[in-house]
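Example (one chain per record):
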Amino acid sequence: MIQCNLLVIKTNQLETTHQFYQSIGIQFQKHQHGKGPVHYAAEMGAFVFEIYPLADQQVLVDSSTRLGFEVPQLDQLIATLSEDTVLKFPNQTDWGYQAIVQDPDGRKVELTQAPL
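Predicted structure:
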């Protein structure tokens, strides 16, 4: 069985993007490997989610990447986010009780309530 164990997104708004993902409940640690860039990493079981700054020569952020996270208490979480961040308020879908929000770079993030 193949499992995803790493996802890296890049941004030109490192602190703002870090704060957004932290606001949905992801806990990060600041990292730097040798002379590499300062970035944020969150370990979620065997999965690692990282936020890196764009490379110096890179100008555009890939906002077409869509992410999904399972969260507890979706309604309470959505109530804490700014209204302009929420693209689709929580409702029941074929994939569960779900909302769609947007990160600072324009990526859509599906938030699905964890089963009780």
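Caption: The first strand starts at residue 6 and ends at 11.
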